[in-house]
Design brief:
The complex is a heterodimer of chains A (about 220) and B (about 350). Chain A has about 220 residues and is mainly α. Chain A is built from 11 helices and no strands. The chains are: A mainly alpha (about 220), B alpha+beta (about 350). The interface between A and B is medium-sized, with 16 and 24 residues.
């Protein structure tokens, strides 16, 4: 088993999930409560990575952050090296790729919170932001955890986007799924099989947690 | 005026009804205004506008000199800044918090000592001691309602807004909580606007009733006046009870009580023995009219008076008899002819003690 690739993948997935927790919440909040008539367009954009071939998404990200793009040039000027074929570039692409896996469960969970409870909090003098943290989030905890876990799992298994944006650099952008592909190309079925089994088991465990959570929040959460 | 709330605003819905609220309310002293009307009459919308949860389309709302809403000046004070207490119909308790957590929700920034004192005060006031570690789902409907009250009272609101406060309770609990709620509202010294479609609730809680119909306030006045002397046919149809008068118990005999109503004695069934002051409600169809001297029958109440008004309504007529107070009776047009009833005719009105419905006030 290629432990370098596994550790790199776990790091990438954890970082992506953490960023999506922070970035996805405001997006989900806006999608839940906005009465903007063109909101469905924003919903479609968020859902796009679900249907788009990863290579297409990867291609656009590659062009957008490449050394000739404004974003790429700005990044190089500030940080000192290009964004493409680096771990940071990979994180950015993963965040975009897994966006719906975080935002959609968040939105569903926020939408399921009784609006009366939110209004009750407002009439009790609690600001909108504080109400979000004291009422909305605690009552949508299962959905928030689901979103984070799903985006973690989805990032672990990504292939096309990584290949397009990150390339295949050992210890930097070479993730588990690319490692498996390489092993198969090299006809090393035993190595590929070990890593694949590892990914299978981890994915199964993660999904079990998600489904258990949604059946009963406290089934897997040792809290009263 | 600095010591009153004024509201005169309209809320229009796209392609829907328009709701117009107009009333005044003295603040700084206990005074309960009940918005009374059938469902769909716009009562809850008015309450939500007062709370700042909805923005009216035009008009003005002021409270003790502050402007809460002014369409022309573009002012809309958010609910957080109004320092009100809003009691939701289904209480809207936070299911993820304990009873103590719910009650102290709005006062979490007080220092811990004061917060504990306030919590203890509220638990005592609303008889919730011993329940502070439970969750809302583990309480009965009546207890949940008391928690909701404790939660709004804990932050010392300047105005209470109550949306159908008793409608989520089962009948026996409602009976009991109604009395408690009235005592609490009087005791707290906070003005309140209460929405209800239940006339018993309106009579129990109100210092003043605003009858709502078709999205407008049709009549405002003391409860007995609004219920007994509706301003027009619309109000009469909404309030539904014909005679409501205030009375005081002067004598009790077994489960019967004799009440003095403007110098007239009326017997009523009153087994509960709670309080001395009541509203007496008599439906027009429970009043029988006879010509001439006092007849004898099993009915307890025989009231001598004169017909003062006759209002025909289809096959029947509503007659108002002045017998110390205005009593409305329902008779058929045929009976009206046979008895030759005209304004001024002396009659005896008969009402069974069991037909006098008492509501404590």
């Amino acid at each position: 088993m290629n432990w370098t690739a596994i550790l790199l993948t776990l790091k990438l997935a954890a970082l992506t999930a953490a960023i999506l927790l922070v970035v996805g919440m405001p997006i989900a909040y806006w999608l839940t409560y906005s009465r903007w008539r063109w909101k469905f367009l924003a919903e479609s954009v968020v859902a796009l990575p679900l249907v788009l071939p990863p290579t297409v998404l990867g291609f656009y990200v590659l062009v957008a952050i490449g050394p000739k793009s404004p974003v790429g040039q700005w990044y190089q000027a500030v940080v000192g090296h290009p964004l493409v074929f680096t771990f940071e570039g990979l994180v950015l692409a993963s965040v975009l790729y897994s966006l719906p896996f975080a935002v959609q469960p968040f939105t569903a969970a926020f939408g399921a919170v009784d609006p009366k409870l939110v209004e009750a909090s407002w009439t009790l003098g609690i600001s909108r932001l504080a109400t979000f943290f004291r009422v909305t989030i605690p009552l949508s905890l299962a959905g928030v955890v689901t979103g984070v876990v799903l985006s973690f799992a989805h990032t672990m298994g990504e292939f096309g986007v990584v290949l397009m944006v990150g390339g295949n650099i050992e210890g930097v952008t070479r993730t588990v799924s690319i490692d498996i592909y390489d092993e198969v190309q090299a006809l090393n079925y035993a190595g590929a099989g070990q890593t694949a089994l590892f990914l299978l088991v981890v994915s199964f465990l993660i999904l079990s947690v998600v489904y258990a959570l949604n059946r009963n929040l406290w089934a897997v959460w040792p809290m009263k | 005026m600095a010591d009153e709330m004024t509201a005169d605003f309209e809320k229009r819905y796209n392609g829907g009804p328009s709701i117009h609220g107009a009333f005044r309310l003295p603040v700084g002293k206990p005074h309960v205004l009940v918005l009374f009307g059938p469902s769909g009459s716009g009562k809850s919308t008015i309450l939500r506008c007062l709370a700042g949860l909805e923005q009216p389309s035009r008009g003005r709302i002021t409270f003790a000199g502050e402007t809460w809403f002014d369409a022309e000046a573009g002012v809309q004070t958010p609910p957080q800044a109004r320092a009100i207490g809003y009691l939701f119909q289904d209480y809207a308790l936070f299911p993820h918090l304990t009873i103590a957590g719910n009650i102290t929700y709005a006062i979490h920034d007080l220092d811990p000592k004061e917060r504990r004192a306030r919590l203890a005060e509220m638990l005592r006031l609303l008889q919730l001691e011993g329940l502070e570690d439970r969750r809302p789902a583990q309480l009965s409907g009546g207890q949940q309602q008391r928690v909701a009250l404790a939660r709004v009272l804990a932050r010392r609101p300047r105005l209470l807004l109550l949306d159908e406060p008793l409608s989520a309770l089962d009948a026996p609990t409602r009976e009991q909580v109604r009395g408690e709620l009235r005592g609490l509202l009087r005791g707290q010294g906070i003005p309140a606007v209460c929405v209800t479609h239940d006339w018993v609730e309106a009579l129990t809680l109100a210092d003043e009733v605003a009858v709502m119909g078709g999205g407008r306030v049709l009549q405002v006045g003391p409860p007995d006046e609004v219920f007994s002397r509706p301003a027009d046919a619309d109000v009469a149809a909404i309030v539904g009870v014909e005679t409501v008068v205030a009375g005081r118990v002067v004598e009790r005999m077994d489960d019967l009580a004799a009440l003095d109503v403007g110098g007239v004695r009326l017997w009523a069934v009153e087994p509960s023995r709670r309080g001395e002051d009541f509203y007496l409600c008599i439906r027009a169809e429970d009043v029988t009219l006879e010509i001439g001297t006092r007849p004898s029958s099993s009915a307890r109440n025989h009231l001598a008076g004169r017909v003062v008004e006759i209002r025909p309504a289809g096959a029947v007529s509503r007659l108002v008899v002045e017998c110390g107070f205005a009593l409305t009776a329902l008779v058929t047009r045929q009976a009206e002819r046979d008895l030759a009833l005209t304004p001024g005719t002396p009659v005896t009105a008969t009402v069974k003690a069991s037909a006098v419905h008492l509501i404590s006030r």
